[in-house]
Design brief:
SH3 type barrels, OB fold (Dihydrolipoamide Acetyltransferase, E2P), 3 domains, 6-stranded antiparallel beta sheet
Length: 189
């Protein structure tokens, strides 16, 4: 059964202009003069760019099925990260470009989600929003600076360097937002 613009809904993923786009917003418009059309706002799932366009009402579109697979990060191999499918135990290398900046927060044995279009095309690697990582290196806070809003660089167990408050010491486990790379707080044990 062919899909048309009548099947559109927010969140639907389309194969459009030789790429994959997620519908952010859509609106059916029936002007007083001329034919009806559908105004869409879609986000490219590879680049993140947003596009606005118009389609004729009833026009054929291709809605794509999205699969999310739980995987486990095993190790890094050059520019690739190797993940293992938790069900089939198949190992899948993914180039670090596909993961983006959040790759610096992946630690071995971490659970992640690989997002596929039509079961074959890898769209993204989704890390948990928050991760807990140990601080392996940071400078010692100067006495008196701990009461103010002083921050300092800290190297985490994955090698990532982020800015943390002056009171954080080596060996502490902290919570980080993987979307922004910001310190969220200490992890209490």
């Amino acid at each position: 059964m062919a899909e048309t613009t009548a099947d559109l809904h927010n969140g639907a993923v389309l194969r459009y202009r030789d790429d994959f786009y997620q519908v952010v917003e859509w609106q059916h418009v029936k002007p007083g003069k001329g034919g009806a059309f559908v105004r869409i706002k879609v986000k490219n799932l590879r680049t993140g760019s947003v596009l606005e366009d118009r389609l004729r009402a009833g026009e054929s579109i291709e809605i794509v099925r999205i699969d999310r697979r739980q995987m486990q990060y095993l190790y890094r191999d050059g520019d690739s990260f190797v993940f293992m499918d938790n069900e089939s135990f198949e190992q899948i290398p993914v180039h670090e470009e596909k993961i983006g900046d959040s790759a610096r927060f992946i630690k071995e044995n971490e659970a992640v989600e690989l997002v596929y279009a039509d079961g074959t095309v890898l769209l993204s690697v989704d890390l948990p929003i928050f991760v807990e990582l140990a601080v392996i290196e940071t400078t010692i806070a100067v006495r008196g600076d701990t009461a103010t809003d002083v921050s300092k660089p800290a190297t985490l167990e994955t090698g990532a360097v982020i800015s943390v408050p002056g009171f954080i010491e080596e060996g502490e486990v902290i919570k980080i937002d993987t979307r922004t790379g910001t310190y969220m707080g200490r992890v209490r044990e």
